[in-house]
């Protein structure tokens, strides 16, 4: 986000510098961050997870790597519903696993839903893991309890596993609650590895501290021999910042969510002034998914808007084949900048 950080987090970094605390992460800090994560999930989502089931890793993608390597059958393909967060499509092949893209269903109102039949077929063909992103980057959905239960039925039928990326859980923009997938019932708790982090909600991705939440005691036991080595690269500043975020910075987060809600509404208003452009409803995250297919922009949306409007977007094709003709727009920026960007995009389309 093009915002700052909470004062409490800035204080943590300053205090570490003042005390020259730039060494490895002490075990006491590691335990404190795990406890803060557990308390935050219980207080925010009503999900009770023992702190001993929370492991610190550098980021969510590190959790994905561990999930693929430690909790899926060797060589089994990985299902990625698309449009997807771009690295999901590159991290998995780097682990010598096949990505099975399952294009999601785009309804007439621009809202996406998972293709359960496609996911079912991919599991039946031998896939071992489903990558579930909720809130869903890049399309902005916050999946309902009913939708999550439908996913669980498919996964359970095939004895599959789920990697649930919930890094945007703090950034739900409407009244619909975020529901941790693993918290649904015993089935989902048993087959899920959950990834959370303070990095998106509190704007500290560079401090590199994510959390892997294991809701199956057997998974905890299986991972225990690898936990120390896997978590060695977590930084002291990241762990302390995450502790502060989860424990002390809820008011700051509430202000950010309120500002993002206003940005989302302005984006929808101004995007309505660009004929042919459609925006998927944004229920969570700070990302808008722009349907530019009817604009027929030369070179594709991202290339066109960078060249003609001076606005940098991510081309939807980076999010999978289902993203062709779309663009990913981060709207976590000061409102005058957001307005200027959309006005320049409007003028570029009109001039084209």
UniProtKB/TrEMBL annotation:
Superkingdom, natural source: Bacteria
Gene3D superfamilies (alphabetical): Aspartate Aminotransferase, domain 1 (3.90.1150.10), Type I PLP-dependent aspartate aminotransferase-like (Major domain) (3.40.640.10)
Residues annotated as domain Aminotransferase class I/classII large: 14-343
InterPro entries with a match to the protein in the record: Aminotransferase_I/II_large, Class-II_PLP-Dep_Aminotrans, PyrdxlP-dep_Trfase, PyrdxlP-dep_Trfase_major, PyrdxlP-dep_Trfase_small
Keywords: Aminotransferase, Lyase, Pyridoxal phosphate, Transferase
This protein's name: cysteine-S-conjugate beta-lyase
Family membership: Belongs to the class-II pyridoxal-phosphate-dependent aminotransferase family. MalY/PatB cystathionine beta-lyase subfamily.
Organism field: Georgenia wutianyii
EC number assigned by the record: 4.4.1.13
Required cofactor names: pyridoxal 5'-phosphate
Presence of keyword Transferase: yes
Leader sequence segment: none
GO molecular function: transaminase activity
